[in-house]
Structures are given as C-alpha cells and as structure tokens.
Automatic annotation (TrEMBL), chain A:
Entry keyword set: Lyase
Phosphomevalonate dehydratase small subunit-like domain span: 21-100
EC number: 4.2.1.182
Domain of life: Archaea
Annotated protein name in UniProt: phosphomevalonate dehydratase
GO molecular function, one term: lyase activity
Signal peptide: none
PANTHER family registered for this protein in UniProt: DUF521 DOMAIN PROTEIN (AFU_ORTHOLOGUE AFUA_6G00490)
Organism encoding this protein: Candidatus Nitrosopelagicus brevis
Subunit structure: Heterodimer composed of a large subunit (PMDh-L) and a small subunit (PMDh-S).
Catalytic activity: (R)-5-phosphomevalonate = (2E)-3-methyl-5-phosphooxypent-2-enoate + H2O
Length: 127, 387
C-alpha cells in the first residue's frame, strides 16, 4: 500500500476500470451506474464495490457526485487509485470513503471481480 | 503533511464542525498531492452551484453548512442551472428545480460569496498580481489563471476550493510550487485554427498531458480561442496549465496534434449533422466575444433558437456598450448566471441535437444532458444558421 488518503476498512468485490473516471460526466449519482460508452465498465454499478481505477479526471464537481453517491447509498465502499487527484480525494474525505493510492504493479495485480480486504491502519490489502 | 498546532486543533474539532470538515478536506488533498504544509490563498472560485450537478444531497449539504460557515477570503461562484429572470420563457422547467436552485444560491450568498454565478471570473475581475496563490475549482478558470493570468492554483475540486474559501488556506503542492518537471510538448500542426480547433487541441492535450503541457506551433490566439483551449483541456484530464513555446525543449517528450488526432476528437464529440437549437457560451462569453458577435450578426437573423450565455456582470457592461441590441434583434437570447453545461434550459423532450462551437459544452451535452451534438466554429454557425 503506497499511501493512505482517507482512513478506513472495507471488504468487498473489486470493480476495476482501466479508464480514468470523470465522475460528473460518466457516473449516475443516484444509482452509481457508469453511463459513458467509452468506459470498460459501461453500464456496471459501483455501488458497494471496491472501485479500482487509475485516477479521476474532468470536472471539479465530481467531488459532489461522490458525496451524492454516498448519500444515495450507491457509493463504492472503498477506492483504490494509482494517482490521487483532488476531486476523488476530497470527495472521499467528505463522504468518509476509505481511499488509498497504490503502485502500478499493485494496481495490475488486483483482479476485477475478486474479493478484497483493505485495512488502512495496518496498511494491508488482502487479495 | 506538517500542520501548525492551530490547524491540528481545527482538524480535531476544537473550533467546531465546519472547520473540522474543511481541514479534513485540506488534509486529504494535501496527502494526495504530497504537500508539506498549508499556505494562505487570496481568492477561491467555487464550483458545485448548479442543482443539476450537485443534486439533493449537495443542496442539503450546503444548506446545513451555510448555517455556520463563512468565507474568509474573496470567493466567487460558478454558474447555476438557470437564469431566474427568464424562467417564464422555459415552460418545461419544474418548480422543484427552481426551488432547489434558489436554496443553493441562497446558501452560497449566506456564506458570503460574491454572487457572480460565472465560470469566467477572469472576465469579470482584474486579476491580482503575478504569482498570487488562488484556489480555483472551475477547470477552465484554473487553467486560464495559471496559463494566461500568471496566478498559481492547482486544479481544485469543488470541496477543496470550498475548504480554501472557509479557511483561507490550500495545500502547498504541484502547480503552486516553482519547480515542476519538464512538461510534454504538444506540437500544433493545424494551420489557421478556429476556436473549435483550439477546443479540440485542449481536449487532446488534457488527455495526453499530465499536470502541465507546453504547446508549440501556435501564434497569438485571440481570447475566444484561448478560452476554448482552456475549456477543452479542463474537460478531458487533470492538466491545469499550458505554456505556448516558440522553441521546443530537447528534454521534453513530443506529441503531434494534426489532422488525424483532431478528427479523432471531432468524431468522439460530434454526433449529429445539424442541431435543433444553438448554444454559445461554455465558457460564458466575455465582452470582446459579445462585441464580435454583434458585428457578425449585423443585418442577419437566426433561423432557430440560439441561447447565448454570459455572466451577469458582462451582460450589464455589454448593454451599456450597446452590443446586446444587435444580438437580440437577430433573435439571440442572452442568458446569465448559467451556461451550456448541464443547464436544464435545453428541453430534452423537444431537442434531439444541439449546435455549438464549444468542446466543453459538447462533452456535457452528450454525456450529461443526453442530446446529440453538432460541432461547428462560430463563423460557420453564423453562415449556416442565419439569414
């Protein structure tokens, strides 16, 4: 685990995207479903998943989308990125969603659909 | 990140819940960008104002926060979803939207922001002196401030800029510092680019660039093209700064932006051959652009609805200078406090496609509003859509 941005524990199924995510443009804030055809996780929902993706892109208002997902109970239970951008970091901080940054090698080793456990206190990820 | 004892107290809740929330955000964004400390900022520009973008949870959050939170530095705000002076002309806008949008507006005003409702604060205010640290969330404004205004900001998020407005501080990292690694150079290979081409260049640069890019092969673009470049760049990536360079740095990685790259962006965002309505303004038009538009429209009239978005401050100046008469005579509808992006003014029950010259507008029309887009430079819009 390279760096903890928002503390917390989570256990759940990985939803992995290799595309950077524009939360405002590409994610439905009520359901958590990806609605941009260009994404490899198009039409999948991030609700209750451990969302694994490179980093956030685009609108600064994406931070509100993350907060809305949490309020609407459609948020991921944790996020894992290779680069922490301000939109995702601040959205997770306000919504209390554990968020960590990992190396490219660790990112590559995480498989879509697998169960994963994150514990930021002991700085461990269990695949 | 090192915090002062005062900052630590605030983070631990000793100065109340509002400041605790603000410091929690600043610490997370500080950790995210490897900042060593927080530094004072002079001006925060906030996003997250349009009810369409922040929804019920955003409206509730701001209503609660504004009971206690007050901005500590100059703070300006992004566009709302609608122009309250023109609601009666848009029958499809429901009362719920108007009520929630008014609540968001009032929450920001209660916190003490200047009610600019504009994505182009650089068109409204004189910019502070060079190298002043600011905190701009609106991506086109952050890019403009860094690249053309000589100011310093990271590409802030809605929450990091809000936290900066309330505390007067931001993490000291990335573009706020002097030394950044040699950026990639984008070589502009298109001759006589229109503002639409500059928007596509920006969209491309935002995708391939990191935090900052150099752009070669461009000579003195006008303000409309510069704004299009900032808008396009902010939409597609994390890049928050560009510099026009005459000589390419040997150490810099180089990427061409030619016909092929441009067509790829065009095909991604242009999905219709014609639009049912026209929108101009994302970013909102400035005084110079309204002046140009009034000249281009002399003796002509739009053959379909054309919505023209500018800030209220710019609209007032343009009326005084008599630029608006000609535009309204030609059938253009001047709208303020909102813009093309995510406005509910576009009635999706009656509109299949929108014609615009904005790459930023196109991205959100397509992905958020859910309509098709017909992209054309302004000169071509005037040629095709007026008589």
């Amino acid at each position: 685990m390279s760096k903890v941005i928002v503390q917390g524990n989570a256990q759940g199924k990985v939803l992995k995207s290799t595309n950077p995510i524009n939360f405002l443009g590409a994610v439905d804030k009520k359901t958590g479903i990806i609605r941009d055809k260009k994404y490899d996780i198009f039409e999948k929902s991030m609700k209750d998943t451990v969302l694994v993706f490179p980093h956030g892109i685009g609108s600064s208002v994406g931070a509100y989308t993350i907060y809305s997902l949490k309020s609407n109970q459609s948020a991921p239970i944790a996020m894992i990125c290779t680069k922490a951008d301000l939109t995702v970091a601040s959205g997770c901080a306000l919504a209390n969603i554990p968020m960590i940054v990992v190396s490219n090698e660790e990112f590559d080793s995480i498989q879509d659909g697998n169960q994963i456990t994150i514990d930021t206190k002991s700085e461990k990820i269990f695949n | 990140m090192e915090l002062t004892s005062e900052e630590k107290d605030a983070l631990n809740g000793k100065h109340g819940e509002t400041l605790q929330i603000a410091y929690r955000i600043l610490v997370a964004t500080g950790e995210a960008t490897d900042a060593e400390k927080l530094i004072p900022i002079k001006w925060a520009h906030l996003s997250g104002v349009n009810y369409n973008t922040i929804g019920d949870s955003g409206e509730q959050f701001l209503r609660e926060l504004s009971k206690d939170a007050r901005v500590k530095v100059k703070a300006t705000v992004n566009p709302m979803g609608i122009d309250f002076d023109h609601i009666s002309e848009f029958n499809h806008i429901d009362d719920e939207f108007v009520k929630k949008q008014a609540s968001i507006r009032d929450s920001y005003i209660r916190m003490g922001v200047e009610p600019t409702f504009s994505c182009t604060p650089y068109d409204i205010f004189d910019l502070p002196e060079k190298n002043t640290q600011v905190s701009f969330a609106e991506s086109n404004a952050a890019i403009f401030a860094n690249s053309l205004g000589g100011l310093k900001t990271n590409k802030e998020s809605a929450f990091s800029a809000l936290a900066s407005a309330i505390t007067g501080k931001s993490p000291y990292s990335d573009l706020r510092k002097e030394n950044i690694a040699t950026p990639m150079t984008i070589r502009m290979k298109m001759d006589n680019p229109s503002e639409l081409d500059f928007g596509m260049l920006g969209f491309f640069a935002g995708k391939v660039g990191d935090t900052s890019v150099n752009i070669s092969g461009v000579s003195q673009p006008n303000r409309r093209s510069c704004k299009a470049l900032c808008g396009g760049m902010g939409t597609s990536g994390t890049c928050a700064k560009f510099q026009f360079v005459d000589n390419e740095d040997e150490k810099s990685e180089k990427v061409d932006f030619g016909k092929e790259e441009m067509n790829e962006v065009f095909d991604e965002l242009n999905t219709a051959e014609k639009g049912d309505v026209i929108t101009l303004g994302s970013p909102q038009l400035g005084l110079e652009e309204l002046s140009d538009l009034s000249k281009m429209l002399k003796g002509k009239s739009f053959q379909k609805r054309c919505m023209i978005f500018c800030s209220r401050a710019v609209q007032e100046q343009a009326r005084t200078l008599d630029y608006i008469n000609e535009i309204e005579r030609a059938g253009g509808e001047i709208l303020s406090d909102c813009c093309t992006c995510l406005t509910p003014l576009i009635d999706t029950n009656e509109t299949d496609a929108v014609t615009t010259n904005s790459i930023k507008g196109a991205y959100y029309l397509k992905n958020s509003t859910g309509v098709d887009v017909n992209l054309k430079p302004l000169s071509k819009i005037i040629e095709d859509e007026t008589k």
